Amino acid sequence: VKDLGRGDYEFFTEDMNKAVEERLILARELKLAVAENKLELYYQPKITQESNRLCGVEALLRWNHPELGFISPEKFIPIAEDNDLIIELGLWVIKSAFAQLISWQEKGLPSIKIAINISTKQLQTQGFVGSVERALHEFQVPPQLIEFEITESAAMDDPLKSIENLKALRNIGIDIAIDDFGTGYSSLAYLKSLPIQVLKIDKSFVMAMDKDENSAAIAKAIISLGHDLGYKIVAEGVETQQHIDALSSYHCDLLQGYFFSRPLPSIEMEKYMLSADIC
Ligand code: C2E
Ligand code: CA
Ligand code: CA
Ligand code: CA
């Protein structure tokens, strides 16, 4: 810690204490919320670029704390990862998404794919694949309707363990997508050694495409190279018609973003499904 003079120094440590304290409070509250089943999944549509059809949804965690309000997963997922809470929370997400899929089927709604975010720690936990298999069996979910989104860094971190589990998941019939693609350091050559089917271009590139030629060039290159290697490409963070026009000219397969819809609670998602053309 730099001594910036007495006042600044105290201010700084006070700030740090505050941050630590906030994390502790959130960790405790999160544990409670998980135990009491207080978290919820929202669903965001993925749309085919060519024919504007609903082709799947991504499940996204939402935590509405009675006093603190909505807390972003960007904030609480890392806290859950620091504890082992992510294992329990992650399995809750998987089972809830499976239950939702079956409930939609039972209501006669169209069968669309659900993508589930899996954290690095989950992927590398002993017994993870077994717990997924048991959940598939318990809810009688066809694995073809399930996709796992793994960040690029998760695949890179301890790659042997990751590859082993990814291969096992793939053998079960679950599709694997690399999330936030372009932000990590993996070469496409390395990716080829992983059993993946989908690349998701990180929203930072998509959202900068209008103003920044480099971002547009990167998005275009990812799509073109990705296609040559046999991957489907999803763009996230699609907010404007310009984004769509550019991504269409690059032949991106699927689009996801606020332009089409924000993530929706399941009731709202059902309405969306009823009014959408399905792929
Ligand atoms: P992600 O997996 O990259 O998810 C995409 C994020 O972008 C979501 O934020 C989504 O709401 C947001 N988004 C979608 N379209 C747009 C758009 O057009 N513009 C902008 N500005 N944002 C858009 P969200 O829901 O806050 O989630 C943040 C991150 O938290 C996720 O990033 C993911 O890494 C993590 N997360 C969320 N749910 C889960 C979960 O169930 N398990 C795990 N392990 N992580 C999760
Ligand atoms: Ca994701
Ligand atoms: Ca992402
Ligand atoms: Ca992300």
From TrEMBL:
Q: Which GO terms describe its molecular function?
A: cyclic-guanylate-specific phosphodiesterase activity
List UniProt keywords, sorted A-Z: c-di-GMP
The EAL domain sits at 23-277
Does 4Fe-4S appear among the keywords?
no
* Name of the molecule in the record: cyclic-guanylate-specific phosphodiesterase
